[in-house]
From TrEMBL, chain A:
Keyword field contains Transport: no
Keywords: Transferase
Domain Beta-ketoacyl synthase-like N-terminal: from-to ranges: 82-254
Protein name, entry field: Beta-ketoacyl-[acyl-carrier-protein] synthase family protein
Statement: the UniProt record of this protein carries the keyword Transferase: yes
TrEMBL record, chain B:
Keyword Ribonucleoprotein recorded: no
PANTHER family: 3-OXOACYL-[ACYL-CARRIER-PROTEIN] SYNTHASE, MITOCHONDRIAL, POLYKETIDE SYNTHASE-RELATED
Protein name according to UniProt: Ketosynthase family 3 (KS3) domain-containing protein
Keywords: Transferase
Organism domain of life: Bacteria
Gene3D superfamilies the UniProt entry points to: 3.40.47.10
Organism: Catenulispora subtropica
Pfam families per record: ketoacyl-synt, Ketoacyl-synt_C
PROSITE patterns documented for this protein: KS3_2
Similarity field: Belongs to the thiolase-like superfamily. Beta-ketoacyl-ACP synthases family.
């Protein structure tokens, strides 16, 4: 069976471009989650980590100028993350391009860019004499429908990378925050169907309606401050965060034409499971992933959403499997990117394995004693020079969303 | 001519190698039937499920006045069978369709005991958005949106406060409840993947399921997809794209005429399909004696040339890949189950690719196009048409394209107004979608090695 290597990454968060700013922020104890006061000032109903549109630039050129009308916010993020991941790589052609594919992790509940337009149209529809279909035909901005199609976003990534093998999108909300997409990519490579796959996830701005829906599924955090983060005794819910991420996966037996990274990390396993009850799903996914590796993790990048219930479930189920492992999580620093949070953690975990340092959990001050005797990283980074194996876990948001995912990374000698 | 797959369908499992991937169960809910038997009978008789979309006023749109609509009596039957509605589960119509198709497929495959380990579930649901699944849902939705806009404008805080104590439609959230329900139904965890729902999504889902099985990641896989999106919004948007049929004649059945010179666009529908896929060894071990079709190879591609327009080179690529990975040559393909959307460009492009692959032999290959009767169900079409492909193999009958009375010489594919009875060992099936999506797959009656 070929090894699957993570050879390039692209990451765009509120911390900036790349994994370095996020790891630096975690190490320094800096969080990008706005305080309640800042959220109120921004007229945001909940503290939400936002991206600056300038951080997701659209490529220049005639082709891209023409394509822009089909692009929504998610497309901007996806293309920017993919371009960042592939920076400096030579263009692919011919058989190499055909052996290279795209897997997207997206949400169908993404940004409602029509909010304002549709509000006005809805008001006018109450008195407008035109039949509704005609009114919408006339007034809804052109290409709105196409802009929301996930494969359209993937096609932009294919254009940006030159990958023409295939393009598929996996919904991330129900797919363990992007780990479903990673598992999908892994299968494309393990089967020999493709030599390399770029997995791109996007968490665009959520509409207010979706935020309300998510809050009903599992309470969103209302007050971000030290002591309100994941695993803290004072945690009170997750903080949504916008982000975009790209991971290039390559088979080690294929020519690693994009292997820019001198020390790639191996994706040993990635599994997702869904059961009627969430704890069983978490256990099944982690058990399946770890069984492919056969070693206990040195570092556990937990989902760590900050949800009172989910954090407790995650620790209760996985604590015994992660005994002695450093436990960290990114969501207190860059927020919960629902559709792709798992992919972000894979990128961060891979880099922290290379560096031999595990960063602390953002906004975690006093670990909740009810979560068990776990090695939460608090306050500052922990040296982990001998760490080789990282477990990354993700869980879909909401009590009815009982899907969990687990990835195992190997940072030792290949 | 037999039309009952329950009594004479299927090929004996004993004829297959253990590693063959086979379809052992199938279910459909379509405008032409809410059971596999009814669906197949309608295919053979050329009975259309298209009708004028009179649930909303489409008269001022430039196209799209006909739709494939599941008749009300079938809708009621589906709701009752799936336990949805008053006194039952609260589900979106899209989920209801998937549950019913899935229940049919599980029963057909005689899946009664929980799988020994996680079952794969690959699914695609065309999301209608918060506006609901039916035309009649849309006016109340828009009225509510107007009231909200007048009360809260675009201010997020005001909107959140406005929504705080209001009901949200079941279509809004899209987390994994369906997956969890399937896990409960099976009594086992599911390895679930919700794929995008473009027009190639259903066939791609079948390929993903087969790959999961070939890798040994699961012993049995479920594929299901549904669509229900006939709303003023969706029709208006397809109208902007000018992708829908402009048929204005008296008979709505003539609105979808794949490969016909008169074709003018596609007809959207509501539908669902489901198939159960497993290794022959697994099926045999649980006592299954017959299967509907074996899955050969598939080809998948992304084209980067255009957002919506198909590319003949990419279509050719996925067809050749599917045939090659089946261990076959073009000469081994007996019949084609086309994407056949009835749009000007798609059909001539698909036909052009078939001509590149089959050459002069294309004129002899019987081609069927299920969308002529059902309309286009986006991702669901790939699964529904997989069922038709399997039935073609099972019964050695190629369904007619009953609405194609004036075959377009520019397409040059062979369609028939009546069923064609002939030996069918292999079926080539294709699906294409927005975003440069291309998929083809070969279904076989027996092991590819035996037929190669």
């Amino acid at each position: 069976m070929p090894r699957i290597l993570i050879t390039r990454t692209g990451l765009i968060t509120a911390a900036g471009a790349g994994v370095d700013p996020v790891l630096a922020a975690m190490a320094a104890g800096r969080s990008y989650v706005p305080t309640a006061a800042e959220a109120r000032q921004r007229r945001s109903p909940w503290p939400i980590v936002t991206l600056d549109p300038a951080d997701t630039p659209w490529p220049a050129g005639k082709l891209w100028d023409n394509a822009k009308k089909y692009a929504n916010t998610a497309a901007f993020g996806a293309v920017a993350a993919a371009v960042q991941a592939m920076a400096g790589a030579d263009p692919v052609e011919g058989a190499t391009a055909i052996a290279s594919g795209v897997v997207m992790a997206v949400g169908c509940s993404g940004s409602d860019e029509l909010n304002e337009a549709m509000g006005k149209i809805a008001v006018s529809a109450q008195t407008d004499p035109r039949p509704l279909p005609k009114l919408l035909y006339d007034e809804v901005p052109d290409f709105s429908y196409i802009r929301g199609i996930p494969s359209q976003i993937g096609q932009f990534v294919a254009i940006a990378t030159g990958f023409r093998g295939s393009n598929v999108a996996v919904y991330g909300e129900g797919g363990a925050a992007g780990l479903g997409a990673l598992a999908q990519a892994s299968r494309l490579l393990r089967s020999g169907e493709l030599d390399r796959v770029i997995v791109v996830g996007v968490a665009p701005p959520l509409s207010t309606t979706m935020l309300v829906a998510y809050d009903r599924e599992d309470r969103l955090g209302t007050s971000a401050a030290p002591g309100a983060g994941p695993f803290d005794a004072g945690r009170g819910g997750t903080f949504p965060g916008q982000a975009a991420v790209a991971l290039l996966l390559e088979r080690d037996d294929a020519a690693p034409v994009f292997g820019a990274d001198a020390s790639p990390v191996e994706l040993v396993a990635c599994e997702t499971r869904c059961t009627p009850a969430r704890p069983e799903a978490i256990s099944a996914a982690a058990g399946a992933a770890l069984s492919r590796h056969g070693a206990v993790p040195d570092v556990w990048w937990a989902h760590g959403s900050g949800s009172v219930g989910l954090d407790a479930e995650e620790c209760a189920v996985l604590g015994p499997l992660a005994a002695g492992a450093h436990v960290t999580a990114s969501k207190g620093t860059v927020g919960n990117a629902f559709e792709c949070g798992g992919l972000i953690d894979v990128a961060l975990a891979a880099e922290s394995l290379r560096r031999g340092r595990t960063p602390p959990v953002g906004l975690l001050v006093k670990p909740d004693p009810d979560l068990g005797d776990l090695e939460f990283v608090v306050g500052g980074p922990r040296a982990a020079a001998s760490a080789r194996t990282a477990l990354v876990t993700s869980v879909s948001h909401g009590v009815k969303a009982s899907t969990a995912g687990a990835a195992v990374l190997w940072g030792g000698a290949l | 001519m037999s039309t009952d797959p329950d009594t004479d369908g299927g090929t004996r499992m004993s004829e297959l190698d253990d590693d063959e991937i086979v379809i052992t169960g199938m279910g459909v809910v379509t405008p032409i039937g809410a059971s596999v038997a009814d669906f197949w009978e309608a295919n053979l008789r050329g009975r259309s499920g298209l009708r004028f979309e009179d649930r909303m006023d489409l008269s001022q749109l430039p196209c799209g006045w006909v739709a494939g609509i599941i008749p009300d009596d079938l809708k009621d039957a589906v709701r009752e069978r799936s336990g949805t509605g008053p006194g039952g589960a609260e589900r979106s119509w899209g989920d209801t369709l998937m549950h019913d198709a899935l229940d049919q497929a599980l029963a057909d495959a005689a899946v009664t005991a929980p799988p020994a380990r996680a079952a794969a579930l690959v699914w695609a649901r065309v999301w209608p958005g918060p506006s609901g699944s039916f035309p009649q849902d849309y006016a109340p939705h828009l009225r509510a949106q107007a009231e909200r806009y007048q009360a809260a404008g675009t201010d997020p805080v005001a909107n959140a406060e406005y929504l705080a104590d209001r009901a949200l439609p079941p279509e809004l959230t899209d987390v994994s409840e369906f997956q969890a329900e399937v896990a409960a139904k099976l009594g086992a965890p599911v390895l679930g993947t919700r794929l995008e729902a473009t027009c190639s999504g259903g066939l791609r889902a079948v390929a993903e399921a087969a790959r999961l099985l070939r890798l040994g990641d699961a012993d049995i896989a479920i594929v299901t997809a549904s669509v229900s999106r006939s709303t003023p919004y969706v029709l208006s948007q397809y109208g902007q794209l000018m992708a829908l049929s402009r048929w204005k004649g008296e008979d709505p059945a003539q609105a979808s005429t794949p490969f016909d010179a008169r074709r003018s666009g596609m007809v959207i529908n509501e539908s669902a399909g489901a198939v159960i896929v497993e290794r022959a060894s697994h099926a045999r071990a649980r006592g299954v004696e017959r299967f509907h079709a074996a899955i050969g190879g598939w080809g998948l591609a992304v084209g980067t040339g255009h957002v919506t327009a198909p590319d003949v080179t990419e279509v050719e690529r996925v067809i050749r890949t599917a045939i090659d990975r089946s261990g076959l040559t073009p000469d081994d393909i007996d019949t084609v189950n086309a994407h056949g959307t009835s749009t000007k460009l798609n059909d001539v492009t698909e036909a052009g690719a078939l001509r590149r692959v089959f050459g002069d032999r294309l004129a002899e290959i019987d081609v069927c196009a299920v969308k002529s009767l059902t309309g286009h169900g986006s991702a669901a079409s790939g699964v529904v048409e997989t069922v038709a492909a399997a039935l073609t193999l099972t019964h050695d009958i190629v369904p007619p394209v009953a609405t194609t009375t004036e075959p377009d010489p520019k397409c040059g594919v062979k369609t028939s107004l009546t069923p064609v009875e002939r030996p069918v060992r292999t079926v080539l099936k294709s699906s294409f979608g927005f975003g440069g999506q291309y998929a083809s797959m070969v279904f076989t009656k027996a092991a590819p090695a035996a037929s190669a």
